[in-house]
Amino acid sequence: MFEKYKALTEKEAVSYAHSLPGLFAPDAELLNKEIGDGNLNLVFHIADQKSGKSVILKQALPYARVVGESWPLTLDRSRIEAEALKQAAKRVSSLVPQVYFYDSQLALTAIEDLSDHIILRKGLIAGTRYPQLAEDLSTYLAHTLFYTSDYYLDPQEKKEKVRQFINPEMCKITEDLVFTDPYYNADTNSFNPLIRESVESIWNNNELKREIAHLKEAFMTRTQALLHGDLHTGSIMVKEDSTKVIDPEFAYYGPIGFDVGAIVANLLLSYVSHEAHSLEPDKREAFQKWLLETSEKIWTGFETKFRTLWEKHVKDEIWLTEGYVDDILLQILRDTAGFAGCKMMRRVIGLAPVADLELIEPAEVRAEAETNALLIGQQLILKRKSLHKVSELTDIARQVLGKGLTVK
Ligand SMILES: Nc1ncnc2c1ncn2[C@@H]1O[C@H](COP(=O)(O)OP(=O)(O)O)[C@@H](O)[C@H]1O
Ligand SMILES: CSC[C@H]1O[C@H](OP(=O)(O)O)[C@H](O)[C@@H]1O
């Protein structure tokens, strides 16, 4: 239909959807709405008024949508996203949307419409609990990560996959926005002026920055498994009995704890934000308790499922040495804490804030929640090497908010 790349208008997206084989009948009455609310891409929701059939067309723009054309960005992220979704579908097909079609010329993917789900971040802001979430996310993490790692794959095949998912431009965004810019006076930063003192104390904390430098190096060099790469609560869609992980355009081979840490960070951001959101005090306490219990269950579910996969599949004599899998899981727990710490702080100080905090008014109340997020983030990084179990991680959050600790 198009000879070279062009960003589609709503009208062009409708014609394009019409032309997709086997999707819509010739007499379909297609209605289209651009629903993209992320930082990067166009997302068209196209529905046939007659049959009720629908599809999502996601198209990469040659720049970062949130900043504009002054921030050029690779269209290859669209290939990475389509391939990562297909890779995940091999292991956890019920936890990702189906990819119907990928068009490399237009950097466009036709994806299953999940409009009966909502973005998890929005659900959490409203104080909604999702009973299936911990079970589903722990399965997603254990299976997508184990099955793409050296613990499962033939070493040759694993290295081929590393090559397939080389994603330098998207990684550079994370390297800058998560691991460097928030910790000095960078132009990309944007934070509430009321928390300047807390931010400057981070900029002046050499011990903290030294640890962040180690975490950045791990992100850049440790090709442990194929990560989602941006697994925040805006990349997860939910309804009561279903969880779907979307948007893996930052996928690459990196340290497992980066994906686990992304989820934990965003649940903890919700936790601090609910100190301010307008739920009644009783409901708020119960919801915050649920958030921490969910973080713990995601970890324990991940650990149990990872161990089961390990016992079933690992054959290498040296890796079967007693205690080795325990060492790996302990390192992942500590990485999870460290990466979660960075991911919390970047959302307070750096580019691309999160609605959980942004929606808090007035600025004084928001500043309290933001300061708590910074305190938890720092403690997660600084204390991570002494952690042995997940309740010690969540206790850091309880302590900062002055809640009772887990009984030992
Ligand atoms: N498969 C889908 N079904 C329904 N809505 C979707 C789907 N994928 C994305 N969306 C909507 O589009 C928004 C942006 O999508 P996302 O993949 O996060 O884009 P970006 O990469 O720009 O962040 C999501 O917040 C969600 O509301
Ligand atoms: C300039 S990209 C900023 C930020 O946006 C991405 O998130 P999303 O695509 O889900 O909106 C990612 O977290 C990047 O760090």
The poorly predicted ranges are none
What small molecules does this complex bind? adenosine-5'-diphosphate, the ligand CSC[C@H]1O[C@H](OP(=O)(O)O)[C@H](O)[C@@H]1O
CATH C-level category of the largest domain: Alpha Beta
- Give the spatial strand order of the biggest sheet: 1-2-3-7-6
CATH topology of the largest domain: Aminoglycoside 3'-phosphotransferase, Chain: A, domain 2
Provide the gyration radius in Å.
Answer: 21 Å
Count all strands and give the number: 12
Describe the largest sheet.
Answer: 5 strands, antiparallel
Number of helices: 14
What sequence of helices (H) and strands (E) makes up the elements? HEEEEEHEEEHHHHHHEEEEHHHHHH
Number of domains: 2
CATH superfamily assignment of the largest domain? Aminoglycoside phosphotransferase (APH), C-terminal lobe
Shape, per Cα inertia axes: globular
Structural class: alpha+beta
Q: What is the strand content?
A: 5-15%
Whole-number mean pLDDT: 96
Domain Aminoglycoside phosphotransferase: 33-264
Binding site for ATP: 41, 58, 112-114, 247-249
Function: Catalyzes the phosphorylation of methylthioribose into methylthioribose-1-phosphate.
Subunit structure: Homodimer.
Topology:
Elements: H1 10-19, E1 30-34, E2 41-48, E3 54-60, E4 63-64, E5 68-72, H2 76-92, E6 99-103, E7 108-111, E8 118-119, H3 120-125, H4 133-146, H5 155-164, H6 168-177, H7 196-203, H8 206-221, E9 225-227, E10 236-239, E11 242-245, E12 252-254, H9 256-273, H10 281-313, H11 324-349, H12 355-358, H13 363-383, H14 390-400
Antiparallel strand pairs: 1-2, 2-3, 3-7, 4-5, 6-7, 8-10, 9-12, 10-11
Helix pairs in contact: 2-4, 4-10, 9-10, 9-11, 9-13, 11-13, 13-14
This protein binds adenosine-5'-diphosphate (ADP) and the ligand CSC[C@H]1O[C@H](OP(=O)(O)O)[C@H](O)[C@@H]1O.
